[in-house]
Design brief:
It is a single chain. The protein is of the alpha/beta class. The chain folds into two domains: 159 residues, Quinone Oxidoreductase, Chain A, domain 1 (Alpha-Beta Complex); 138 residues, 3-Layer(aba) Sandwich (Rossmann fold), CATH 3.40.50.720. The strands form three sheets. Strands 3, 4, 5, 6, 7, 14 and 15 form a seven-stranded mixed beta sheet that branches. The longest helix is centred in the middle third of the chain and has 14 residues. 48% of the residues are buried. Its cofactor is Zn(2+).
Length: 338
């Protein structure tokens, strides 16, 4: 096992460093994984790096520097401690971990053996895929639903794919980026709308005659919430899947009451809250389902990877994230290049 670990750390607002420290061997019930790839959750990590959140929010309670970003990675098991039976040295696994060359994992953590035939670059999406799946489950889709996905970053792309798999009759994919709307359509969305949420509302209502059954607000932009409410048909559902750093700027629209809408929040940690012997769809089960869809070709994540950086290029990578370019969909750190 390596005697040092390299990791990406936010040392302050808009400050990114590559740090090296001692490697820790696994204790009982633990194992180490040498990462090959880790995926940047651009929305979340951009908010954390830029402190783009209001004081007193859950973001403010979570983010303190130095901060270790990242939570979706793939690698190879390098060493195992006593009482570890789920994995063996040499297994290829997907783990929830920060961006680092080697990570220490608990045997009871969210860990998945990566099926043969699925590349690291595809598998690295597993945790964002469970986050999107939490939102889709909260929507409680019915066969033939009409759906609008507002915001086609990484989680929005996955939500659009899940909505199609869930039997949606029409999926409207909405983003300001031509690249992202085309990408969503290429992966199964029925209609791409490259425009603002307000402009999309007019197009969606015109196409459906009444609005859609389910709207996913995955933008993380506070002003979009009221537009999502206006885009939803009577007794429809709005799923707030984009976690804004400025919830105080979100406003209601009269359609919430007049149309009897249901608004539900969906968050990363909800999969963990469901983790009990009685809960069927905890993080582990949702991850397994994602890999099943991926193996059967019913979902595609390979096409979502728009940028690959080495860890040594971390500052450049996060400048790109903070700039929020229209062609950014998936950003991967390649740890084999370290």
């Amino acid at each position: 096992m390596a005697d040092a670990v390299t990791s990406i750390v936010f040392t302050g607002k808009d400050r990114v460093e590559l740090r090296t420290g001692p490697a820790l061997g696994p204790g009982p019930g633990e194992f180490t994984v040498r990462l090959t790839a880790s995926l940047v959750s651009a929305g979340t990590e951009g908010i954390c790096l830029g402190r783009l959140f209001e004081p007193g929010t859950h973001w403010d309670q979570w983010v303190s520097y130095p901060f270790s970003p990242g939570y979706s990675a793939v690698g190879t098991v390098e060493a195992v401690g006593d009482d570890v039976h789920r994995v063996r040295v040499g297994d290829r696994v997907a783990v929830r971990s920060p961006h680092a060359s080697v990570v220490l994992v608990g045997a009871e953590d969210d860990v998945h053996l990566v099926p043969d035939g699925i590349s690291d670059e595809e598998a690295v999406w597993f945790h964002l895929a469970t986050i999107a799946q939490v939102g889709v489950r909260r929507a409680e889709h019915r066969l033939g639903d009409t759906v609008a996905v507002l915001g086609l970053g990484p989680v929005g792309q996955l939500a659009a794919q899940y909505a199609r798999i869930s039997g949606a009759a029409e999926v409207f994919a909405v983003d300001l980026s031509v690249h992202r709307t085309h990408l969503a359509v290429d992966n199964g969305a029925h209609t791409g709308l490259t425009c603002s949420a307000a402009e999309a509302r007019e197009a969606v209502v015109r196409a459906t005659g009444e609005g859609v059954d389910v709207v996913y607000d995955v933008t993380g932009a506070a002003p979009v919430f009221s537009e999502a409410l206006r885009m939803t048909r009577k007794f429809g559902t709005v799923v707030v899947l984009g976690d804004t750093g400025t919830p105080g700027a979100q406003t209601l629209a009269s359609e919430l009451i007049v149309n009897g809408l249901t608004v539900v929040g969906a968050h990363d940690m909800h999969g963990a809250f469901r983790a009990s012997p009685q809960a069927r769809w905890n993080n582990q089960r949702m991850g397994e389902l994602f890999f099943r869809y991926l193996a059967r070709g019913e979902m595609d994540t390979a096409s979502l990877n728009s940028h690959v950086f080495t860890p040594g290029q971390a500052e450049e990578a996060y400048r790109l994230v903070r700039a929020r370019p229209s062609d950014l969909s998936g950003l991967v750190f390649d740890w084999t290049a370290l």
